[in-house]
Specification:
The chain is an alpha/beta fold. Helices cover about 30% and strands about 25% of the residues. The N and C termini lie far apart (about 35 Å).
Amino acid sequence: MKFDLHCHSVFSGDAFCPPEKLVKAAVQKKLDGFAITDHNTTKGFEIIAQLAKKSHLQVVRGEEIDVKRNGKSIGEVLGLFLKKEITPKEPEKVMKEIKDQGGLVVIPHPFHPFSKFKDDLEKYLSFIDGIEVFNARHPFSKPDRLALEFAKKHNLAEVGGSDCHFFKELGAGYTLVEDAQNLEDFKKGILEKKSVALGKKSPFCYLIFPTLAKLKNRCFPSKD
């Protein structure tokens, strides 16, 4: 099975990814499904999952959660296969909440210069299930190589995703578990270190979309 495990929707506030277009893009990319990992919210999951079901796609409830130390952000954590939303707080508390829900703890883009995890990851090895070793949105390959080396050194699962903030990016990066037949198999495959991260880098011009989305929301705020 082939899943993009790092995707943002309009519910992130910095993405041009309407639910309908995300689902359409996933079908076009021949994915089996994708994870919705909006920033600090799972608000869009139910809407997107219902739309995806009509196209025979599966959606993982996820979240990209800010983690803080002394009130300052030190990075982000992906929670996958969640049951409910998690609020930003210290990394140990966020990771424990993910595990308590039966979810997977994945560190996204841990060594990328502008969004790296600003603490020693080895301190959190007892919590971490996987490392994002391929992020299609970040243009440089060296940070991905460092992430892969870290995952191999510490026997952690290898995960890939698009980190899409524009719907056309979805599926540029993805995670493959070859023998999986359903979502439970897919999750088990990650835990058993059978996952492989694959894909290609998104066009450099797509980096502008989070800024454009923030400007749009500032100038034309939602009435919801």
